[in-house]
Design goal:
Elements: E1 3-7, H1 17-24, E2 29-36, H2 45-64, E3 70-74, H3 76-87, E4 91-95, H4 100-114, E5 119-123, H5 145-154, H6 193-198, H7 203-217, H8 221-224, H9 237-241, H10 247-255, H11 263-281, H12 303-310, H13 317-329, H14 334-347, H15 352-362, H16 368-379, H17 394-401, H18 406-411, H19 420-423, H20 431-437, H21 452-469
Parallel strand pairs: 1-2, 1-4, 2-3, 4-5
Bound molecules: flavin-adenine dinucleotide (FAD).
Length: 470
């Protein structure tokens, strides 16, 4: 009988434990992807674009191995039962996901399949360490990153990545949806041009990006990773989010890449683990603050400010450059994510959940664990978060991490003629400098929608009010 291999967020053939296991058994394989109509959270727009192209790449890859990816949509348990009946499959294999909403669903799917006499086996493929096994001395999950990561590093190394299966025995052709009929990419309007220019989804592209990073980026990662103008990070996040490459592949490749120091880079993979482990233990991470006192935070409603923020028109160049880059390319450098998130929740007092939802829709790497974890970190309501009262000054952040304004000039061309000393604070430029730069402040580019000093005091007062109401 054939074996169904259900692909989820593991759209790769190398280091895919479920696929490798199926290949080893020497039975025909039916690779399957389900567009789950009962997914706990529908994918955002940018992620739908990525999924389309990633599935296309996986289809090509499997076809090259003599197999065929079957595409179906519906409730996962219905689709699996139906395909098992049609094909006579008695076994379904998949790699585990750890989001509690998903694991709850997977348990139900398993029961439905088992009750029909179909065997289910699951494997570890998307994390370095299993969230069920990393515990502190009291047997509890870690709440703070540093001891969490220290503990992970004392555990046995994760298993080495599995090679691409040599051969996949094919099963007779099964009916499949056409990918185009799923209409995943945006149509009217099609806003994906900038994303398509910036990215190539798929396993091959992920491998090439990793190889480039190991050759050019890893050596100076620790020194340069915070500088958005230097293109110094790996940009593997969407490939990791869709499982086009596994964290184990990245981990081992970095560790064996030569004599470069790797701790700082591996530590970021550690943050990814920490966010996923946190989500495993706190399934409502995207909506509920982990620190209960933040339930009472006096947030503001300011629709005009929200519009200015999402359109990159706040008057703070580093914030606007980030928001425009996000919209255009579907990705944002980590430093920019922190700066814009801080501006939204502290300077504008807009709830972090709104920012999380915007990122969810616009990021190609939108990930339920890292996105919610990142927002809670910035908003000060995560377990291991930046203290709320530490408020980023968007001008100083810009001057520190983009000292020559290269990032600003790239994303806000109307500011391109300003000299370095005012590019992060155009409202301080003299009339003469503005005229020379051809910039009409308030027309070509807005004046700040809030004054940072006053906004900072307002945020601190809101924080005090929250503490007093606890
Ligand atoms: P590198 O610096 O090259 O790091 C390598 C890998 O480590 C990344 O690909 C990523 O998988 C992981 N990583 C790095 N930094 C972090 C971090 N702080 N937290 C968790 N994992 C990390 N990351 C996402 O993958 N998806 C998201 O939806 C997401 N939303 C975020 C929202 C906010 C508000 C913040 C502050 C951070 C968010 N991050 C998210 C984390 C981080 O910004 C991105 O992972 C990183 O910028 C991706 O770039 P890179 O691949 O070049 O990272």
């Amino acid at each position: 009988a054939p074996i169904i291999v259900w692909f989820r967020r593991d759209l790769r053939v190398v280091d895919n434990p479920a696929l490798s296991e199926a290949a080893q058994r020497g039975q025909p394989i039916i690779p399957l992807y389900i567009l789950e109509e009962d997914a706990p959270r529908p994918l955002g727009g940018a992620a739908r674009w990525w999924l389309h192209h990633s599935l296309k790449a996986l289809c090509r890859e499997l076809t090259g191995m003599g197999s065929k990816l079957i595409l179906r949509r519906g409730r996962a348990s219905d689709v699996l039962l139906c395909l098992a009946r049609e094909s006579g499959a008695r076994t379904v294999l998949w790699n585990r996901r750890y989001d509690r909403m998903e694991t709850g669903k997977d348990c139900k799917i398993t029961s439905a399949l088992v009750s029909e006499g179909i065997q289910v086996e699951s494997f570890t493929g998307s994390l370095l360490f299993d969230p069920r096994t990393v515990r502190n001395r009291n047997g509890q999950p870690f709440r703070i990153f540093t001891p969490f990561w220290r503990c992970c590093l004392t555990l046995p190394d994760p298993p080495r990545p599995l090679p691409r299966p040599r051969e996949l025995m094919t099963h007779a052709d099964m009916a499949s949806d056409a990918l185009a009929d799923w209409r995943l990419p945006p149509e009217k309007p099609d806003w994906s041009g900038g994303i398509a220019t910036a990215w190539t989804p798929g396993e091959d592209a992920a491998g090439a990006r990793l190889a480039d990073f190991l050759e050019d980026g890893l050596c100076c990662y620790a020194q340069r990773r915070d500088h958005p103008d230097q293109d110094a990070t790996s940009r593997l996040s969407p490939h990791l989010a869709f499982g086009e490459i596994s964290p184990r592949q990245v981990w081992y490749a970095a560790r064996t890449a030569g004599c470069h120091p790797t701790e700082s880079f591996l530590r970021e993979l550690g943050w990814r683990e920490f966010c996923h482990h946190t989500l495993y233990h706190a399934p409502d991470l995207a909506s509920q603050p982990q620190r209960g006192e933040f339930q009472n935070f006096p947030w503001a409603t300011d629709e005009a400010a929200w519009q200015a923020f999402t359109h990159g028109r706040t008057g703070y160049p580093i914030v606007d450059a980030g928001m425009r880059a996000l919209w255009e390319t579907g990705w944002l450098h980590n430093r920019l994510r922190m700066i814009v998130a801080s501006f939204l929740v502290k300077d504008l007092l807009i709830p972090w959940q709104r920012g999380e939802a915007w990122f969810w829709d616009t990021l190609v790497d939108a990930d339920p664990a890292s996105n919610a974890g990142g927002w809670q970190w910035v908003a000060g309501c995560g377990l291991d978060a930046a203290p709320y009262f530490r408020i980023f000054n968007p001008v100083l952040q810009g001057e520190k991490f983009d000292p020559h304004g290269r990032y600003i000039r790239r994303w806000i061309p109307e500011l391109g003629g300003l000299p370095d000393n005012v590019i992060h604070r155009p409202w301080e430029a003299s009339a003469e400098v503005l005229a020379k730069a051809g910039l009409r402040l308030g027309k070509d580019y807005p004046t700040p929608i809030v004054e940072h000093g006053a906004a900072r005091l307002r945020a601190l007062a809101a924080y005090e009010r929250m503490k007093n109401s606890a």
